[in-house]
Amino acid sequence: MTPGARVAAAIEVLDVIRAGGAAEQALTGWARGARYAGSKDRAAVRDHVFHVLRRWRSCAACGGGETGRALIIGALRDGGTDPAQLFTGEGHAPAPLGPDELQQGRPATEAEARDLPDWLWPHFERSLGGDAGRVAKALRHRAPVILRVNLQRLSRADARARLEAEGIVTEPVETTRSAMHVLEGERKVAQSTSYAEGLVELQDTSSQAAMEQLDLPRGARVLDYCAGGGGKVLALAARAEAAWFAHDIAPQRIAHLPPRAERAGVEVTVLATAALGRAGPFDLVLCDVPCSGSGTWRRSPQAKWRLTPERLTELTRLQAEILARAAALVAPGGRLVYTTCSVLDIENQEVTGDFTAAFPSWRVTDSCTWPVCDTGDGFYLAQIEREA
């Protein structure tokens, strides 16, 4: 595909997204119908689409509208490319720019330049203070690709050497013991032997750092209550000897955990909801709750535009319900660990504060926030201890 044809494909995908389609499904649907597109073509189209999703409002301002075509025009201008060079009408390229499109659009307002919905900005200011603008700007860029090394199997230096032999260049992230930032060969990771053998996993730095905060006595009984794919329980299991259990209300989300655990050489017992009471109590229950994902919007930018005030309220209610249910599974003297990938206080300190106010036998003993940065997503962790 020519650069112009790639841009035309991105316009097609963006129009599907504008009509309500999910980004990943829209990209997959286009790729199935574009058998001629090679892997580099698909990657280029994806990059165009995700650039727009991260910067929708500023692209719309610069491109003069919110059609797929206008958004791509704005994105190209935003990146310093004259769209007329690609909008030639030749081959499969988009039609040439019209008179109105040849105008430079207009400068984005301050609100548009943040690339956030207007209603969200007060939440950012209240939660992040003077750092709100920096975080909003950071969320407009691509997220880093971060690996977690299974330190029970090999050292970080050995993992770097193995990956480099497969064309994957990394550097250690010094804020954690196990994280590595992928500098080259990002798209080779999932096909590498190190990944297939469970020597490395994809996991953000902040998530790894949060799990390193947890002190786990030998032989503890640990439940990952909202396990999803199991990344956090596997990170914990890579550095401590304990009895590991995992649960998720949606069986399809946890279906990938058993093969991942087998690759990593870890035994994790997956529990159905009905079996939780019989299997408990547990010394530590991890609640990585559903949230806005605001700390990870670089990775899932469509979520930024789909979040509404009503949905945020629903999420905080769900978070409170999950904490209350999980608390019943904790042994006397045990701990709840509450985590989100949100940067919003309404999902973090306010939820844990409301919980301890409602349940006086519990108290927050430690909490930590990780900001959005070059090597990590936004993340929050609170340890909540139950009286013995």
3D architecture notes:
This protein has three domains: 3-114, no CATH class; 146-203, Sun protein, domain 3 (Alpha-Beta Plaits), CATH 3.30.70.1170; 206-386, Vaccinia Virus protein VP39 (Rossmann fold), CATH 3.40.50. Helices cover 41% and strands 16% of the residues. It has 18 helices and eleven strands. It has helices spanning 3-18, 23-33, 39-54, 56-63, 68-78, 110-114, 121-128, 132-138, 156-165, 193-196, 205-212, 231-237, 251-254, 257-264, 276-279, 302-306, 309-327, 349-358; strands at 146-149, 169-172, 179-184, 200-202, 221-224, 243-246, 268-270, 282-288, 330-340, 362-370, 379-386. The strands form two sheets. The chain has a seven-stranded mixed beta sheet with strand order 7-6-5-8-9-11-10, sandwiched between helices. 43% of the residues are buried.
Short description:
With 388 residues, the chain is α/β, with parallel strands linked by helices. Helices cover 41% and strands 16% of the residues. The chain folds into three domains: 3-114, no CATH class; 146-203, Alpha-Beta Plaits, CATH 3.30.70; 206-386, Vaccinia Virus protein VP39 (Rossmann fold, 3-Layer(aba) Sandwich).
Provide the spatial order of strands within the biggest beta sheet.
Answer: 7-6-5-8-9-11-10
Tell me the helix content. 40-55%
| CATH hierarchy, class of the largest domain | Alpha Beta
How much beta, percentage-wise? Answer: 15-25%
Number of helices: 18
Total individual domains: 3
CATH topology of the largest domain: Rossmann fold
Measured between the Cα atoms of the first and last residue, the distance is: 65 Å
CATH homologous superfamily designation of the largest domain: Vaccinia Virus protein VP39
- Based on Cα principal axes, name the global outline: globular
Per DSSP E runs of 2 or more residues, the count of β-strands stands at: 11
Sheet with the most strands?
7 strands, mixed
Class based on secondary structure composition and strand pairing: alpha/beta
CATH architecture of the largest domain: 3-Layer(aba) Sandwich
Low-confidence parts:
none
Quote the average pLDDT.
94
Rg, Å, rounded: 23 Å
Order of helices and strands: HHHHHHHHEHEEHEHEHEHHEHEHHEHEE
